[in-house]
Amino acid sequence: MLLVIDVGNTNIVLGIFKGEKLIFDWRISTDKNKTVDEYGLMLRQMLGSADIDPKDIKDIIISSVVPNINDIFPEIANKYFDLEPIIIGPGVKTGMNILYDNPKEVGADRIVNSVAAFEKYGGPLIVVDLGTAITFDAINIHGDYLGGAICPGIKISADALFQRASKLPKVEIIPKEKVIGKNTVASMQGGIFFGYLGLIDAIIEKMIEELRTGDEKVKVIATGGFSKLFVEGSKYIEEIDPMLTLDGLRLIYERNLK
């Protein structure tokens, strides 16, 4: 079995693959103060709840965008599984040409998502990851990673509004049918939802213009914790793939085996 670990700023997503099939997955909060042993024991408990013997884990692959945790999960792999993990970074074969000014600057999760999306959906393609930050990644028809855009995530903006405007309450982020609110909470929810819906579609629209070389259709796939909020309202998002990053980790693992 293969253990895949995606360390994000807000959540850590873990999955167990048996061959190409994802048989278990978990999502836990990212805590920069947790120790190797705390995370290691938590992981052992999750495996136990799934009736998986740690000895059945034959390989581990890790993607992380949190520098403070970069060393923790490789140490867990060594200490709790006696394995040397593959860590997404320079030197790891992705099978994708990275056409970025400095490829080392691209977040590991963006490359992993792009690898999985192109493998599953083909190109040209835009991947929208709605997490702590919102990232937009463009892949051309040949499977080359071209770059993209990054903007603050919806929760970051909503929290900033609550913290900086003393009379405004903290609100739940939900899809809205109307933008004109009849009270403060509804007004904030409408402004946040439709503001971000407009931002997302405007960036996608501009990226489609830049990606197209003819009449080919540009596919748009969304992933990340907030993707379900916008799929119905967006003019461009065609599909949500919540396990895109985990699939990408498996694919990169297989490419490095070869």
Strand content: 15-25%
What is the number of beta strands?
10
Cα(first) to Cα(last) distance is: 17 Å
Number of helical stretches of at least 4 residues: 7
Query: What is the SS-derived class?
Result: alpha/beta
Strand order of the largest sheet: 3-2-1-4-5
**What is the helix/strand order?**
EEEHEHEHEEEHHEHEH
CATH homologous superfamily caption of the largest domain: ATPase, nucleotide binding domain
Structural domains: how many? 2
The CATH class of the largest domain is Alpha Beta
Rounded to the nearest angstrom, the radius of gyration is 19 Å
Portion of residues in helices? 25-40%
Mean pLDDT: 94
| CATH structural fold name of the largest domain | Nucleotidyltransferase, domain 5
Write a concise synopsis of the structure shown.
By secondary structure, this protein is an alpha/beta fold. It has helices at residues 36-49, 72-81, 108-121, 154-164, 184-211, 227-230, 244-257, and strands at residues 2-7, 11-18, 21-29, 59-64, 86-87, 125-130, 133-139, 145-152, 219-223, 239-240. The chain is built from 7 helices and 10 strands.
Short descriptors:
258 residues; alpha/beta; Nucleotidyltransferase, domain 5; 2 domains; five-stranded mixed sheet; 7 helices; 10 strands
Description:
The protein is of the alpha/beta class and 258 residues long. The chain has two domains: 2-87, ATPase, nucleotide binding domain (Nucleotidyltransferase, domain 5), CATH 3.30.420; 103-248, ATPase, nucleotide binding domain (Nucleotidyltransferase, domain 5, 2-Layer Sandwich), CATH 3.30.420. Helix content is 37%, strand content 23%. The chain is built from seven helices and ten strands. The strands form two sheets. A five-stranded mixed sheet has the order 3-2-1-4-5, sandwiched between helices. A five-stranded mixed sheet has the order 8-7-6-9-10, with helices on both faces. A hairpin with a 2-residue loop joins strand 2 (11-18) and strand 3. Helix 1 packs across helix 2 (72-81). The longest helix has 28 residues, at 184-211.
